[in-house]
Amino acid sequence: MTSLLANGISVAYQEQGQGPTIVLLHGFCGSSAYWEKLAPLLSGEYRVVMPDLRGHGATGAPAGPYTIDQMADDIAALMEQMGVPKYTLLGHSLGGYITLSLSERYSSRLNGFGLIHSTPYPDSEEAKEKRLKAVEKIEDAGINAFVDGLVPGLFAQEHLQTMEPEVNRAKEIGYLTPPQGAQGAALAMRERVDRREVLSESDLPILLVAGENDAVIPLERTFTVEGDRVIKAVIKGAGHMGMYEAPDQLAAVISDFMRNIK
After folding, report:
1. Is 79 strand, coil or helix?
2. φ, ψ for residue 190 (rounded to 5)?
3. pLDDT tens figures, 33-81
4. How far apart are CA 53 and CA 44, in angstroms?
5. Please, which residues bridge with residue 34 across strands?
6. Which DSSP letter does residue 65 get?
7. In whole angstroms, what is the distance from residue 259 CA to residue 19 CA?
8. Cβ(19)–Cβ(96) under 8 Å?
9. pLDDT by residue (tens digit) across 68-103?
10. Where are the beta strands (DSSP E) in the chain?
11. Is the pLDDT reported for residue 32 higher than 90?
């Protein structure tokens, strides 16, 4: 891991490969380690940069709440510090919310962007209540108990047995999330705004990836825009964790997208 000071905090990241830059943003209670199966499949053609988001992994975790815009500013500042003028930004779940914020406000820095198991919609009122309950559970029971309850719901039901090592690995990564970081990010997601217009109004190439069996974000909440510049892909059999459930499929989708925007 390498760290740089960006937007007032230490942001940790990993990178592999050379070529056009792809920046991969992980989801809630994940880290750059979420991409450990995917990155080697891309790094033969691309430079793959994988930051730990604010409050996650080895990146700084100041007391929250955070905002999605603040977390996007972290990434924009990191890439500036790294001297990367243009890149393609792809975000998983929470990382997708951050991707939309960054693409809305820093579009000139992007070659293209995409959502992986993510959505431009804001939280529903029910989801907002669940965020508050998540903050309470982390406070009362600790991050390990919270992650134990979170992770199984991210995988397709059939994979809980057939991919038990991957499920356990996602839990291990989640246990390393600083409790205040998870709480701060949960509150950021709770307050995020509707960004469907970012997708409909952008002139950049857009990739939308959904899991066939995603119980967290169904296909229709990812596929919210049409157009010649939009590529949609369904990862067969996957739930919310395509990078673990079907890394070869996901890598092929990303590679096809990258070839279209070179």
Report:
1. helix
2. -60, -35
3. 999 999 999 999 999 999 999 999 999 999 989 999 999 999 999 999 9
4. 25
5. none
6. -
7. 12
8. no
9. 999 999 999 999 999 999 999 999 999 999 999 999
10. 2-6, 9-16, 21-25, 47-51, 87-92, 110-116, 206-211, 230-235
11. yes
